[in-house]
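Need the bound structure for glutamine, inputs here:
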Amino acid sequence: MTRIGVVTFPGSLDDQDARRAVELCGAEPVALWHDAVDLGGVDAVILPGGFSYGDYLRCGAIARFSPIMTEVVAAAGRGMPVLGICNGFQVLCESHLLPGALVRNDRLTFVCRDQKLRVENNTTAWTNDFAAGQEITIVLKNGEGSYMADDETLARLEGEGLVAFRYVGGNPNGSRNDIAGITNPRGNVVGLMPHPEHNVEELTGPSLDGQGFFRSVEAFLARV
Ligand SMILES: NC(=O)CC[C@H](N)C(=O)O
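Answer from helper R.:
Posting the output first, comments after.
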């Protein structure tokens, strides 16, 4: 059975939901504490949402220096699938596994809503279960979700097809080019602000679209 590690930093909030989503989608969740110095032999890693280290300095700026991140960066370099959700996306950018930065929402308030996204790249380890151009609904909840990158980086992301998800039906936070999530060129590291782990059960809704992320990584790992 595929083993997917979910890292808990001090201040992580959605680690339990991420582990539950992994389990509901048929893989074995493995809890990884942030000061671990190995990944316990997992096949993939999720950096979950929350407020690691209280969002002090900048979101993800301290978590980046947690001992486990040395292992995550090395494993990502070897091609291991890594998914950063919301605060996890912020940690991935701070760790330079993904380019750019997440800054305060343009309306200067926390935004919580069901968000429509368009799948722009369905070739990654975490998005291959979706159709290209598919519209999905995923919960969004953050205060610092506005994706920023310089013009050159943005042109590269667009030119190389590295935008994984784009907001549709209104940009909730001022992200450049309506970017909701990006991938690295290899397609194993993906970060997005909305929360797929909250969209895996009929009871809580608003969709089951989050399951696609976990099915994608299972399919990806079955191929390697
Ligand atoms: N839901 C989350 O992961 C929150 C992320 C981050 N701390 C923010 O508010 O922007």
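Comments: The helical segments are 15-24, 67-77, 87-94, 151-159, 211-223. The chain has one domain: 3-223.
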